[in-house]
Amino acid sequence: MKFPRVIRPNGNDRRTDLPPAAPGEWAVTGAFRFAHRDPGTFTRRELAAFKHGWLGLESFGNATLVEVAEITEEISDVMTRRLAAYFMANCGAGDARDAIEAAAQEMSFAASLCGHPLKTVLALDREFNEQGLIETTRIIA
């Protein structure tokens, strides 16, 4: 299965106040991090994370670029459980079953963005508009 993995080609990902994700971490888009906030209240660095940030699944740090990579089912299951634990600890998930379901949906969505050849570099653009939260991915040549 294909899944987003953090890369940092220039070795730097410090344009946000959030801790950086490490290269090689598996990642999801992580829009849920911003669901409870009004983008009008973001600092400049928080806005950069909102607009372009992926969420690393080991450090729960921020990344601006990912590549399409192969993930095993076993590792995907581990990452799903890790994300579910994050939901329980940080996002007010009602119970473990709800957290696992939400994590599985996030993982499935992230995998759906990887319909490209391996090593394809992806960036994320996110905005709020009258239709709600809009996320788009783009290929970086």
Largest sheet: 4 strands, antiparallel
Distance N terminus to C terminus?
Answer: 22 Å
Which percent bin holds the helix content? 25-40%
For the secondary structure, the number of strands is 7
What is the tally of helical segments? 3
Order of strands, widest sheet: 1-5-6-7
Q: Uncertain spans, ≥5 residues at pLDDT below 50?
A: none
Shape: globular
> Per DSSP, what share of the residues sits in E-state strands of 2 or more residues?
25-35%
Give the overall pLDDT as a whole number: 90
Q: Which structural class do the helices and strands define?
A: alpha+beta
Quaternary structure classification:
single chain
Pattern of helices and strands: EEHEEEHHEE
Write the layout of secondary structure elements.
Elements (H helix, E strand, L loop, with lengths): L1 E6 L19 E2 L15 H9 L1 E3 L5 E2 L1 E6 L2 H18 L5 H17 L8 E9 L2 E9 L1
Could you explain how this protein is built, in words?
This protein has helices at residues 44-52, 73-90, 96-112; strands at 2-7, 27-28, 54-56, 62-63, 65-70, 121-129, 132-140. The protein is α+β, with helices and mostly antiparallel strands and 141 residues long.
